[in-house]
Specification:
By secondary structure, this protein is an all-alpha fold. It is built from 21 helices and two strands. About 1% of the residues have low confidence.
Length: 456
């Protein structure tokens, strides 16, 4: 008889009421994660003042966060393929918030480093897995649009931590209480809504739950007042083979076709470069825009003007996401790569010029950060399209190992920056150039569906 795939079913259902809870859940999850992304830098900076430790020791503490992420990345990818993204995202919020709250109470440097590592270990199912969870509910015609819009949520989420510290400093209350409050306020709604949001039909099919997936699709069609294609939901040959042979390893499906192996390697190096750039921009901004020439940060580490500069840098996320929103619809994948490469390289090159004022430095960094946001949004939206559902979780987890490897170098950029501002800027410029050339080697998947198997 006639059959249809999950993507064909979701395309027929369209976008509407059926996607309400996944949309709300992903929105709240991104608010929580945006807060969490800036929280470790605030906590470690204030802890340096509390424990009277030097900056090089603080870099080792930051290294623990990235080390924890690197250890757990592939493990969480395997868990996602086995237990589903909804389950793993729930555990991520619970464990990450738990260890982050404990870190606010750390009595010594040793406890701070250990708990910071555990925060990184439990953080890995972050934005990428959350975005994939959401995209698996979306029809192809709105997938890039809605996925890109979700990245705008990072800005208000990231500002929560900074603004809470500023507010509680004005009230002369502890920074620990400020960060703990902001974490709880952003985490509790995610946990509650996560109990309502359903599992994705792509995951159900990839684990053998074809009947359950079809039942979910029919419920979604009823909510959107649409009809599914005629026939039954089908399961691909490679998914059935994987379920039959439980000893088959995920990594074999990523290396057996030569093109898939090359794509995985290119994406891995590209993600390492992006990881360095993301953390690099974050660490570079406070020092590069500071008028101080000494190597040590003051206590308290973040005055109002410093926080405003950081928020201005994060504010580039919103216009960057809007630019990406239009560019993903109008430009080809290679055109998007060309635009983001040039858009970052030009302002970074101008930053190498002597005699720039602080305002000019902040402006150039905002422009570079804007185009970087376009690049990171595009790779997160298009990244899942490079891999089939049956190994998508493991593949993204593996790429996160590369991302973490790049991010681990960023704390040392802060140390280099204290000695040589120009050298640090050149390092970010080299990373941008590497990302640009690697991106041109990738196959164009901007108009491809979310495939379930290597067959398709």
């Amino acid at each position: 008889g006639r059959t249809f795939s999950v993507d064909e079913g979701i395309d027929a259902i369209g976008f509407g009421r059926a996607q309400l809870w996944p949309t709300v859940y992903t929105f709240l999850f991104f608010i929580w994660e945006g807060n969490l992304l800036v929280w470790p830098a605030l906590a470690t900076a204030y802890s340096r003042c509390d424990f009277n430790i030097q900056s090089w020791m603080l870099m080792l503490v930051g290294l623990g966060f990235y080390l924890g992420r690197g250890i757990s990345s592939a493990l969480i990818g395997v868990m996602v393929d086995k237990f589903g993204r909804r389950t793993v995202l729930r555990l991520t919020v619970l464990f990450c918030t738990y260890f982050a709250l404990l870190m606010c109470l750390a009595p010594s440097l040793l406890w701070l480093a250990a708990l910071f590592t555990m925060v990184g270990f439990s953080y890995n199912a972050g934005a990428t897995q959350g975005l994939i969870y959401y995209m698996e509910f979306l029809p192809a015609k709105v997938r890039s649009l809605m996925g890109t819009l979700m990245f705008m949520v990072f800005f208000p989420g990231g500002c929560v931590g900074y603004l809470s510290v500023m507010l509680f400093e004005k009230l002369q209350l502890s920074w620990r209480f400020a960060l703990a409050t902001s974490l709880l306020v952003s985490a509790i709604p995610v946990v509650l809504v996560g109990m309502i949001s359903p599992r994705t039909p792509h995951f159900l099919v990839s684990t053998g739950g074809v009947r359950e997936a079809e039942r979910l699709l029919r419920q979604m069609a009823l909510q959107n007042k649409k009809k599914l294609p005629p026939g039954r939901l089908r399961q691909s040959r490679s998914v059935a083979a994987k379920l039959k042979d439980n000893k088959m390893q995920n990594w074999k499906m990523l290396v057996s076709p030569v093109k898939m192996l090359l794509t995985t390697i290119i994406l891995g190096v590209l993600r390492a470069s992006l990881g360095f750039q993301y953390a690099g921009y974050f660490f570079v901004v406070p020092a590069l825009t500071s008028e101080k020439k000494n190597n040590e940060m003051p206590c308290p580490p973040f005055k109002t003007v410093d926080v405003v500069n950081l928020i201005l840098n994060l504010a580039a996320d919103i216009p960057g996401t809007i630019v990406c929103l239009f560019c993903t619809q109008l430009l080809s994948q290679r055109g998007l790569i060309l635009m983001t490469g040039v858009g970052q390289a030009v302002p970074l090159a101008f930053l190498l010029l002597p005699g720039l004022s602080q305002a000019q430095k902040v402006g150039l960094l905002m422009v570079a950060r804007l185009f970087f946001q376009v690049a990171i949004t595009a790779i997160c939206v298009l990244g899942p399209l490079f891999f089939p559902s049956v190994v998508r979780g493991f593949a993204i987890g593996l790429l996160m190992v590369f991302t973490t490897a790049g991010s681990m170098t960023a704390p040392y950029v802060a140390g280099v920056l204290a000695l040589n501002n120009m050298l640090a800027t050149k390092l970010v410029f080299v990373a941008v150039s590497l990302t640009f050339f690697l991106g041109l080697l990738l196959p164009d998947v901007s108009r491809k569906p979310l495939e379930d198997s290597l067959d398709s």
